[in-house]
Backbone:
């Protein structure tokens, strides 16, 4: 016998799995009014796009790049020292994690002009699940930022 | 593996990617059109319970057990259109004499038969192991497998 049906996980489904693994994080999904290529292009240019979409981040610098893995340094308001993140970039997928904080972004095209976008942020500890509702509110702001930056790039 | 159990996101992501082809095969063959949903539910159960896995080397068998359970649960939620022992329709189309339409044949089976077929013929699990995994008697595995294989044979010979 051959051709057995095979199931797959798209990037948004994979991010839901990550949210289950990290209960201290908040996950928000939305269909953005921006094409998939414009949304995911931001991940090729983290140094510009992250400070654009997140007002808390003052700057991002790439320290090292090794294929789909990056090491970046982010300077944030209220943080006296820069924070380093390990970054994993895959099609439709951007995962950034430091020892204290994780950020996950996933995208799947919806037709030619829209994108099913999922965004996760939070602390990677179980106890942080108490802050999940607050995280979701913060993540909604980031999702709005992602949509705005993607649309601006289009113009 | 230990890093994933401690909640290291990159390690969890790598584990999900490594297990995906295996879990996707099980969920796809059992839950068919709902295979992607079953796979997501299986992985959510896997990562939630990962910290309690005592022996990391046993992750494949442990994940298979979860995937089978979630795939059967998902498949049972979808109403079946073909009775358990119904005679399968003969395949049609220009290549039907040579190509066995695995999906159409699986669709005509009950999830309980599908899972046995997947475990025995796709995964190579023994009857005793399949019985333990599904929590049914070995005789039940044998009879369900017999009916499932007969269904495939009828379709092949049609």
Residues:
């Amino acid at each position: 016998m051959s051709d057995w049906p095979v199931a797959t996980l798209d990037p948004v489904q994979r991010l839901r799995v990550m949210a289950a693994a990290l209960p201290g994080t908040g996950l928000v999904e939305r269909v953005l009014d921006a094409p998939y290529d414009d949304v995911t292009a931001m991940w090729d240019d983290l140094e510009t796009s992250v400070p654009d979409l997140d007002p808390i981040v003052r700057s991002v610098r790439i320290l090292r790049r090794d294929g789909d893995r990056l090491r970046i340094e982010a300077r944030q308001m209220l943080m006296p020292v820069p924070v380093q993140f390990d970054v994993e970039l895959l099609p439709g997928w951007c995962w950034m994690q430091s020892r204290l904080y994780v950020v996950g972004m996933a995208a799947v095209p919806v037709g030619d002009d829209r994108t099913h976008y999922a965004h996760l942020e939070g602390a990677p500890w179980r106890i942080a699940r108490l802050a999940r509702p607050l995280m979701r509110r913060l993540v909604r702001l980031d999702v709005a930022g992602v949509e705005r930056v993607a649309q601006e790039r289009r113009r | 593996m230990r890093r994933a159990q401690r909640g290291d996101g990159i390690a969890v992501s790598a584990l999900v990617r490594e297990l995906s082809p295996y879990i996707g095969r099980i969920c796809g063959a059992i839950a068919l059109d709902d295979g992607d949903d079953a796979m997501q539910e299986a992985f959510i159960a896997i990562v939630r319970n990962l910290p309690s896995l005592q022996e990391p080397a046993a992750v494949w068998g442990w994940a298979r057990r979860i995937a089978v359970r979630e795939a059967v649960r998902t498949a049972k939620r979808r109403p079946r259109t073909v009775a358990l022992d119904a005679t399968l329709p003969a395949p049609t189309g220009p290549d039907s004499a040579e190509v066995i339409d695995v999906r159409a044949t699986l669709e005509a089976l009950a999830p309980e038969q599908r899972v046995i077929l997947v475990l025995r013929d796709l995964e190579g699990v023994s009857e005793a192991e399949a019985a333990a995994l599904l929590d049914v008697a070995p005789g039940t595995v044998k009879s369900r497998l017999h009916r499932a294989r007969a269904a495939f044979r009828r379709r092949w010979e049609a």
